Amino acid sequence: MELTDNTKGFKDEFSIIRLDGNMGYNHQPQRTAVNRIYIYQNGIGSVTIDKTSLHLEKYQVLLIAKGQIFLFSEDSSLAGYEITFTDAFWEKAPESASNCKSVLFNLNADNQGLAAEKNDLEELFSISSMLNREFQTENYINKTDALAAYLKIIMIKTANINFSLQERYNNSDRKIYTHFLELVSQNYQKTREVSAYAGFLNITHKQLSGICHKQGGNPPKKIIAGMIINEAKRMLYFSASPVKEIASVLNFSSTEQFSHFFKKQTSLSPQTYRNLGQF
Description:
This protein is of the alpha+beta class. It has 2 domains: 14-162, Sandwich (Jelly Rolls); 171-276, Homeodomain-like (Arc Repressor Mutant, subunit A, Orthogonal Bundle). It has helices at 87-90, 98-104, 118-136, 143-159, 163-170, 172-187, 194-200, 205-216, 220-238, 243-249, 255-266, 270-276, and strands spanning 14-22, 30-31, 35-44, 46-49, 52-55, 60-64, 69-72, 77-85, 113-115. β4 and β5 (52-55) form a beta hairpin. The longest helix is centred in the middle third of the chain and has 19 residues, at 118-136. The chain starts with 13 loop residues before the first strand and ends with a helix. This is AraC-type DNA-binding protein.
């Protein structure tokens, strides 16, 4: 099956659109080529992101990172805003906001669905409305900077929307854990060795294991394997690439090594998984 990228409403590197009901997406799993933020006052139905299902309710912020697979249920409906942006566009935002993106868009399910207080959501709505008006204006020389500044404010407000998230973000172990997730999301195709990530973070293998257990409930080896398996599933489902090629892209020395790894994690061989035709 060929990859379908849904870039509804996406123009160049950034877009914002108002949502007033039905999502209008094709009801097939889609891999997003951009980062997505949904800010909504009312939600109905559910969304599945990399096989994690989230219910859509009132006063929520939904985050989908570039590269993830998402599928809205047929009855899904949102009243709010959809903001999409590329990593290249985010580079235009002030550097001081970069940590917020690391916390929120790290391919981990921790913060994908955030419940917001009504007042916080209304504040985000107000900022989104101003951003939308700015996006609709005629182009001018510093328009990109203005859009990036609004996006920075939204990201900071989103990172602080939940007090527990703010507490974890300020905790030193949480910062290490967040940095680890960011490193894995950037490098899992290069290395699967826990010791390599621990070395980069200047801590021991044992310290990293303890932090991951405390902050996320899983050992680092399982987190790394999870990201590799999710990417393998995406490639098997959305592309016609031979299993041998997928194994090479994911830095396995042979098809047999990749097949053994995949079956250990999923109880299925890569080819069997592909033949099932289900993400």
